TrEMBL record:
Lineage: Bacteria, Pseudomonadati, Pseudomonadota, Betaproteobacteria, Burkholderiales
Domain Methylated-DNA-[protein]-cysteine S-methyltransferase DNA binding: 92-171
Gene, per the UniProt record: ogt_2
Name of the protein: methylated-DNA--[protein]-cysteine S-methyltransferase
Organism field: Achromobacter agilis
EC number(s) on file: 2.1.1.63
Catalytic activity: a 4-O-methyl-thymidine in DNA + L-cysteinyl-[protein] = a thymidine in DNA + S-methyl-L-cysteinyl-[protein]; a 6-O-methyl-2'-deoxyguanosine in DNA + L-cysteinyl-[protein] = S-methyl-L-cysteinyl-[protein] + a 2'-deoxyguanosine in DNA
């Protein structure tokens, strides 16, 4: 284990669906987003990703770019999170899935099978689901935008009520962005 711990700065942010936890590093890259009621899981995911590195959490002294972007997201600017700098541990396969998740447009959920196709691994649907579930950066790496084969809401680490809210929020945003003539 490294002598010098990896320091992450923690912010606790109120949202319409609960207290959100945001972790950023000293380069202001986003490392984790989770919910206060799932803080134990967040620590477990961090431990899995950074096995060889000690982690130290410190309270942030100023708002991170991630906090500002996520507050804008919850205020209705869903695309405010699209260009946030993120850094993850994980395996090569997990990082490939997480990168593909960032390519899913807000308001346009896809299935696990379609996500597996996007990474040219059509038979890896189950592995894609596991990587999706190990995603440490919810919302920004939008694992909530992946649904079951029949478009049903399937598991979400923050709870299905949050997944439903996030998808509805993004659908409202998408509808609001369309010109009136295109809404039919």
């Amino acid at each position: 284990m490294s002598l010098h711990p990896q320091v992450f700065f923690l912010e606790r942010v109120p949202t319409p669906i609960g207290q959100m936890l945001i972790l950023s590093d000293d380069r202001r890259q986003l490392r984790a987003v989770d919910w206060e009621d799932f803080e134990t899981r967040m620590h477990r995911l961090l431990h899995r990703q950074y096995r060889k590195q000690a982690i130290e959490l410190r309270d942030a002294t100023q708002a991170s770019p991630a906090r500002r972007a996520l507050e804008a997201y919850f205020d209705g600017a869903v695309d405010a999170i699209d260009t946030l700098a993120v850094a993850t541990g994980g395996t090569d396969f997990q990082r490939q899935v997480w990168q593909a998740l960032r390519g899913i447009a807000g308001g346009a959920p896809i299935t696990y099978g379609a996500l597996a196709d996007r990474i040219a691994r059509p038979t890896a649907v189950r592995a894609v689901g596991l990587a999706n579930g190990a995603n440490p950066i919810g919302i920004v790496v939008p694992c909530h935008r992946v649904v079951g084969a029949n478009a049903s809401l399937t598991g979400y680490g923050g709870g299905l009520h949050r997944k439903r809210w996030l998808l509805d929020h993004e659908a409202r945003w998408l509808t609001a962005r369309r010109p009136l003539a295109a809404r039919g």
